[in-house]
């Protein structure tokens, strides 16, 4: 089944609150080799002016990918994950993410294009505080090979 | 440590190299990243699945490579929160052998300077055996 291009323009409202935890940030920092002390030491983070430990620049992907799942794992969307390749990713930080943040994320399907042997899907996650103040924007593009190109 | 420790934007010149580092990644690292990120796609830990979809073997998560590369920028600027924008294209997969490890050479250079905004764009060249694996890898850092 090809990707359904009519999903382009679809928006999903923010779902559950994601609570950013110190130990989750530590785990992510260690996995990516991020050794700056502000990721793991609250005192080092406070010395830089933050309320608690600071997320690495790509940590928002954890929140974004679980948000994108409501679209890419919807059978009606026609996204065959065994044929997906990550094409590009962009993070725009309106402010740094810190432990203790309570975040809600809206999902937008910005583009779904079907070419001869490849479909391209661009999603945008708008991550915000509980009061709606913008925190980060995550734009991700996936390439999906069509079945006759397998 | 304070914000005063950030490099001065006026001292930067386009083309200037500001940092370089060689990063290594093995299968255990990918399992760790899978757990930390929640991305359990088996092409990043299961050789059988990876080869069945036409890959040369298990490959690193593109997002691991992106996340690991920017540590060079964070350490240079001295503040993780100084990275206000970071983007890349994933141009080539990074096969991760077993046993062994893959080595990624990361070079950070100044791509653009905006003195009025107090920002610099740092361009990352990330290569494996001399071949680029990321395209247009650019981090914008706020220096004031």
What features would you highlight for this structure?
heterodimer, A: 150 residues, alpha+beta, Thiol Ester Dehydrase, Chain A, six-stranded antiparallel β-sheet, 6 strands, 20% helix, elongated, B: 144 residues, 3 helices
What fraction, in percent, of the residue positions of chain A are helical?
A: 10-25%
Distinct helical segment count of chain B:
3
Distance between the termini of chain A: 13 Å
Structural class of chain B: alpha+beta
Structural class of chain A: alpha+beta
Counting copies of identical and different chains, the oligomeric state is: heterodimer
* Helical stretch tally of chain A: 3
CATH topology of chain B: Thiol Ester Dehydrase, Chain A
How would you characterize the largest beta sheet of chain A? 6 strands, antiparallel
Number of strands of chain A: 6
Q: What is the mean predicted local confidence, pLDDT of chain A?
A: 95
Low-confidence parts of chain B: none
Rg from alpha-carbon coordinates of chain A = 17 Å
How many separate domains of chain A? 1
Structure summary:
The complex is a heterodimer of chains A (150) and B (144). Chain A has helices spanning 22-32, 42-47, 60-72, and strands at residues 11-12, 18-19, 84-93, 102-114, 118-129, 134-145.
Summarize the structure in words.
- The complex is a heterodimer of chains A (150) and B (144).
- Chain A has a single domain (5-21, 56-149), classed as Hotdog Thioesterase (Thiol Ester Dehydrase, Chain A), CATH 3.10.129.
- Chain A is 20% helix and 34% strand.
- Chain A has helices spanning 22-32, 42-47, 60-72, and strands at residues 11-12, 18-19, 84-93, 102-114, 118-129, 134-145.
- In chain A, strands 1, 2, 3, 4, 5 and 6 form a 6-stranded antiparallel beta sheet that branches.
- In chain A, a hairpin with a 3-residue loop joins strand 4 (102-114) and strand 5 (118-129).
- With 144 residues, chain B is α+β, with helices and mostly antiparallel strands.
- Chain B has a single domain (3-24, 62-142), classed as Roll (Thiol Ester Dehydrase, Chain A), CATH 3.10.129.10.
- Chain B contains 3 helices and 6 strands.
- In chain B, strands 1, 2, 3, 4, 5 and 6 form a 6-stranded antiparallel beta sheet that branches.
- In chain B, a hairpin with a 4-residue loop joins strand 3 (102-114) and strand 4.
- Chain B starts with 16 loop residues before the first strand and ends with a strand.
- Classes of the chains: A alpha+beta (150), B alpha+beta (144).
